[in-house]
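Why should sequence recovery work at all? Because a backbone constrains its sequence more than one might expect. Tight turns favour small or flexible residues, buried strands favour hydrophobic ones, and helices have their own preferences. The token representation captures these environments compactly. In the example below, the structure is given first.
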């Protein structure tokens, strides 16, 4: 840990969960009155003694600041901070996956330097649901913030705990498990929850009551009137918050470019059922390991058509265990079997449930497709079902997996062939309904690439929200709102908004320079020039040595190598004359520049040049 202090020594958050149903107020009542009551009731403070009044900070601290730490210019690494007075709350701690410009990087997480400096002000962390782009950075960031308390729903808590356990951090963290009808008060903030549908159970939206107004925060959601688990969105709560008055709505933009409505998970269940009834051979079913509803529907169809299920893939096994233990998944007895038992059953009684629906190289499906899976070998008559749509960037990897599967003789079913997958993110008509229910004064589209966010902003405009009340923020921008219910976009150079690369065990030790080096080497290779020099005279003791990797073959380029050696020799000799004292740093720079230029002249390539000086 960076700070040697006891992580639990920070000021305890003022928290008490209260049942909020008793606090329903008429919409006509002034919002500030209501806030006093709510906050004081929740915190147990006397009226007028809420920390708003006692805050030692200057006037600007009396504004509410919405600080996105990630997730507004990309899909992933979702993290938002709310600041009022002396209090900060954090919503979600996600990671993102690298793109092609970041060779060797495993994950990307938000830069939390500013938050670390202000960690004593953090009253709590709220996690909306258990996807990696919302919980993945918890083990990296939580300890750096002094392990503030985390508040979330049961299944999400199960997934977070598993992740913390894998990092050996479970013992020190404080994960508080809530019910969706709970309300919590964290300093100046009071948070109520409502259930929304998404591609993982236990997803919640937040209604955050602040001293300047209410915020409805819904990242990652859709409306599903017939979800597989029978638990639809709590429209009544959303409408109630809308009636109470909402200052700001922050809502999911992932599918803002898609018209209409998302297909219901129940429809997918029917397709799975039909498919299972038609297929004669083995079924290999790949989907997201967190999509518990989909997993449930596979088990249901398997039981109905008398098939046994073999589960392969670590994350799938872990998540099924967690969901089973918490009652989010119900599996009929004797449906799951071990792979060794498969021999006892004919092919038409087998389902192999696997990870790898995104074509990930190390996951189950890709290994099956390459023929190097330990227990599953594809044979003619197998059907592979890929129940997912590609996350942008993964299309190529998935296509390779599908081609390999067909080469081995399998029939492949995927989303373009059949509706075998539905997204967890609202389409346009659902997004509009959310805006209609919440009726916010201000609107801030979140969660998506910039063009998705702008499209979502246009939808809101089309519904009558004036343009100057819609805020499509860029990274580094902050939305500030005051007690007069005015809002403006500000920038605060103190607040870091970049990201941090994770590579192996290194967190943040790989920066832009390392990435640039990797890009250069990946593109044009490297070229090492080894010069053995006499310590006193600075003269070459023997011929320079050359090593080339990923640039040219040494063999077959004898002429070029000979010429380079000659150039190096010329350089060392002329510089040796200029300088009385041998200066290796200077010499290395000269060799790098001149030889780099020489190689470009000859090849129009720019390998990374590494001059090495050996003194004798
Ligand atoms: Zn999600």
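From this structural description, the recovered sequence reads:
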């Amino acid at each position: 840990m960076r700070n040697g202090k006891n992580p639990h020594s920070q000021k305890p958050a003022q928290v008490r969960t209260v049942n909020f149903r008793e606090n329903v107020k008429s919409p006509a009542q002034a919002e500030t009155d209501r806030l006093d009551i709510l906050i004081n009731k929740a915190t147990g403070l006397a009226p007028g003694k809420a920390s708003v009044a006692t805050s030692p900070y200057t006037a600007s601290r009396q504004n509410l600041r919405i600080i996105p730490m990630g997730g507004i210019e990309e899909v992933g690494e979702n993290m938002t901070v709310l600041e009022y007075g002396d209090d900060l709350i954090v919503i979600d701690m996600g990671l993102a996956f690298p793109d092609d410009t970041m060779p060797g990087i495993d994950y990307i997480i938000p830069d939390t330097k500013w938050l670390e400096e202000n960690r004593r002000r953090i009253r709590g962390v709220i996690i909306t649901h258990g996807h990696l782009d919302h919980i993945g950075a918890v083990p990296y960031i939580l300890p750096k913030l002094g392990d503030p308390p985390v508040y979330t729903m049961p299944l999400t808590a199960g997934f977070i705990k598993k992740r913390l356990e894998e990092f050996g951090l479970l013992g020190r963290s404080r994960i508080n498990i809530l019910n969706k009808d709970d309300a919590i008060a964290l300093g100046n903030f009071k948070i109520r929850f409502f259930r929304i549908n998404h591609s993982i159970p236990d997803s919640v939206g937040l209604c955050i009551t602040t001293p300047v107004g209410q915020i409805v925060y819904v990242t990652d959601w859709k409306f599903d009137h017939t979800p597989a688990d029978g638990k639809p969105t709590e429209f009544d709560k959303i409408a109630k918050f809308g009636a109470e008055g909402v200052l700001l709505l922050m809502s999911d933009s992932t599918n803002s470019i898609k018209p209409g409505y998302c297909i219901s998970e129940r429809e997918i269940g029917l397709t799975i059922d039909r498919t299972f009834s038609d297929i004669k051979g083995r079924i290999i079913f790949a989907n997201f390991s967190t999509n518990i509803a989909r997993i449930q529907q596979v088990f249901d169809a398997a039981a109905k058509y008398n098939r046994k299920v073999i589960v392969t893939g670590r994350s799938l096994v872990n998540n099924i265990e967690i969901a089973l233990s918490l009652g989010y998944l119900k599996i009929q007895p004797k449906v799951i079997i071990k792979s060794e038992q498969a021999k006892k059953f004919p092919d038409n009684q087998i389902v192999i449930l696997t990870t790898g629906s995104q074509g990930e190289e190390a996951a189950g499906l890709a290994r099956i497709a390459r023929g190097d899976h330990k227990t599953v070998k594809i044979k003619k008559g197998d059907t592979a079902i890929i129940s997912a749509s590609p996350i942008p960037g993964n299309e190529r990897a998935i296509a390779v997996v599908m081609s390999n599967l067909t080469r081995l003789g399998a029939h492949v079913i995927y989303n373009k062939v059949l509706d075998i997958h539905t997204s967890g993110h609202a389409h346009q008509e659902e997004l509009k309904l959310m805006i209609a229910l919440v009726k916010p004064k201000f609107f801030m589209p979140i969660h998506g690439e910039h063009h998705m966010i702008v499209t979502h902003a246009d939808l809101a405009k089309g519904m009558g929200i004036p343009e100057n009340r819609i805020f499509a923020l860029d990274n580094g921008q902050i939305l500030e709102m005051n007690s007069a219910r005015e809002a403006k976009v500000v920038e605060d150079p103190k607040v870091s908004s970049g990201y941090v690369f994770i590579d192996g065990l290194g967190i943040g030790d790989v920066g832009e320079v390392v990435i640039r080096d990797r890009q250069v080497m990946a593109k044009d290779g490297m070229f090492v020039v080894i010069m053995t020099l006499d310590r006193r005279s600075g003269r070459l003791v023997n011929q320079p040595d050359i090593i080339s990797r990923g640039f040219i073959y040494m063999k077959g380029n004898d002429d070029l190598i000979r010429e380079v050696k000659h150039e190096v020799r010329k350089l060392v000799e002329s510089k040796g004359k200029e300088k009385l004292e041998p200066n290796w740093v200077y010499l290395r720079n000269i060799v790098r520049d001149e030889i780099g230029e020489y190689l470009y002249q000859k090849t129009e390539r720019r390998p990374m040049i590494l001059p090495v000086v050996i003194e004798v």
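A few observations help interpret the result. The CA atoms of residues 70 and 530 lie 44 Å apart.
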